[in-house]
Specification:
344 residues, alpha+beta, six-stranded mixed β-sheet, 11 helices, globular, 2 domains, five-stranded antiparallel β-sheet
Length: 344
Amino acid sequence: MKRCVFFICSLLMVVLVRADAGFLLQLGIDTSLVTHVPLDGGRFAIDEYTPFVALDGRQVIALLDDAVHWQEAIEADEAEGGRSIAAVYPVTRQHTIVVFSQEFGDGARNELAVYDWQGRLTDYLDMGYWRDMTMLSIDDDPESEADVRWNTALVAEGGGNFVIERTDHCCTWTDGNSLNPHVVGQRITRFHYQVDTAGHLHLSEITTHDTGHVFAQHYRLEEINQMNWLPLSDTTRLSRLNQLAANDAMQNEMNKELSDPDYASDDVYRIRLLIWQFFDEKPQEFFQWMYVHRDHDDNHLTPLLLGNLASGFTSLDMAERHARHIADPNVKHYIQQLLANVQQ
């Protein structure tokens, strides 16, 4: 009797863990080898031993084209789609989280997508590099080298709640051996998310905890960096980014770049990178925001995007292609006029 009960419980557990992979199996993706994060209390982090399932172009388009528009960048019959699946997490009974990974020589860039039971993408989060194997230059001490390495984990909390936990290791070394740094401090940043009934992600709280000596310079741009952790469904992203671009310190950096061609501001670069990312993810929403705020003195995103297009930071051809699909004729005319005046 006990063996029978144990067998039934085990079978139910297997069914619950594997039920989330149905739409992936329909795409010919076998997720039996990747990590399946338990509903409550599970923890997943990527390291050199993490198993992945490589995706072809057709599978990438089916899973992510609503967020990254790869249909225009790759062919559906390509053997390699440039992404792998690292983990599957049934965050609620109706929705599943899939963690994607792009491996590079110096780390892994990761994305998180939420799907309903039919495999329709309901939200997306570009999380950047989850782990880093290089050293970022931080001139904290002129007598020694000082840098930051980090790794990231997904922590399941149950009830549609989970946490993305990033651990920064502040390191120094004086013998020039970057392979054996001395950790002098640590910052743990926890991004608390909830998945609602529509499958949308909500960033409810960001908490930090420091131990030891943490390099203040590294976190000077933290407010900008945290914009990366806003999900695709967050309708406040563009207005919040515009507020960051409008502050006095950022305006001073932009004016320096305009007056001195040799001056390059890391602050402005991060803003331009976010503009590229947000426009690439939701071009129609970006165009609509530009039109609504066209006569506003505090509209800083429009000139920044036009600057991106003029410099090639953002593809002008792609922007013109997206502009042709604008439904509202007034918005379409306004945007196409702006793009026509961009000089590369």
